[in-house]
TrEMBL record:
UniProt key word Aminoacyl-tRNA synthetase: no
Membrane topology label: Peripheral membrane protein
Function: Required for vesicular transport between the endoplasmic reticulum and the Golgi apparatus.
GO cellular component: SNARE complex; vacuolar membrane
Protein name: Alpha-soluble NSF attachment protein
Coiled coil, from the record: none
Length: 286
């Protein structure tokens, strides 16, 4: 099948969509929607992503005219898949239209999945952490409402991660601690507690409130009796001591020692650097 055939199908669909129904007979919107869908698929095979997305959106409009809202949601989702190849913002717009329909229908699990897709586009394509964070938070709420706890936690951890990167440490602490609390009695999740507590503790330190940081570490040890013996807890206590005494050398030594056995990722390194800069003028961790 050729692009030319797809263009001819679109022209035919356009004509049907704007015609007087008595002239053509039958349901003009249904016939136009089918033609647009066929054209959209042909454009997709030809990798004409923009044309494909636009045509699927036209199909959705026809389906909405017939009040076939489930079909329209599917068409918008198809449009988003094509748009994602060429225009992330158009992909988001199409997904948002699908989500409106899905939430109206009470299909929050499906809506959450596509809301997560929007968040991922903001995160990886548009590099807009603020919008990604907000989208992941909405997805988490919808997953929670559907009792999809693991998926909700996955989104909340994204929220926490981006909040910290945006300097919103209180929000990051809240989300890390929320996931940690919910994971205490979950054997599959419990192994991750030390990581959540470490990240939340670093965020406490980044706020500059060492009293709150000390209290938080004590609370984490009470929440999980095994945490106190972990390298993560000992690391937090060591750098807390360095901050309390304004000892930049001690702080750096603690970071280097921890990094040798447990490689620090970019997220932790950035926050540790901010903490270090708050107690001294040096600009590197090592």
């Amino acid at each position: 099948m050729s692009e030319r055939e797809a263009q001819e199908l679109v022209a035919k669909a356009d004509k049907k969509a704007t015609s007087s129904s008595w002239f053509f007979g039958g349901n003009k919107y249904e016939e136009a929607a089918e033609l647009y869908t066929n054209a959209g698929n042909i454009f997709k095979m030809a990798k004409r992503w923009k044309e494909s997305g636009d045509t699927f959106c036209k199909a959705a409009t026809m389906q909405l005219n017939m009040n076939e809202r489930d079909e329209a949601a599917s068409s918008y989702i198809n449009a988003s898949k094509s748009f994602k190849k060429c225009s992330p913002q158009d992909a988001i717009s199409a997904l948002e239209k699908a989500i409106v329909i899905l939430t109206e229908k009470g299909r929050f699990q499906s809506a959450a999945k596509h809301q997560e897709d929007i968040a991922s586009i903001y995160e990886t394509e548009l590099i807009d952490l603020d919008k990604a964070m907000n989208a992941y938070e909405v997805a988490a709420d919808w997953y929670s409402a559907e009792a999809s706890t693991a998926l909700a936690h996955k989104c909340l951890l994204k929220v926490a991660t981006f909040a910290a990167q945006l300097g919103m440490y209180d929000k990051a602490i809240e989300k890390f601690e929320e996931v940690a609390s919910a994971s205490l009695d979950n054997q599959l999740m419990k192994w991750s507690l030390k990581e959540y507590f470490l990240k939340a503790g670093l965020c406490h330190l980044a706020t500059g409130d060492t009293v709150s940081a000390h209290n938080a570490v004590e609370r984490y040890c009470e929440m999980d009796v095994t945490f106190g013996s972990t390298r993560e807890c000992q690391f937090l206590q060591s750098i807390l001591n360095a901050v309390d005494t304004s000892d930049v050398g001690l702080f750096t030594g603690c970071v280097v020692e921890f990094d040798q056995l447990t490689k620090l990722d970019n997220w932790k390194t950035k926050i540790l650097l901010e903490i270090k800069n708050s107690i001294g003028e040096e600009s590197s961790l090592i």
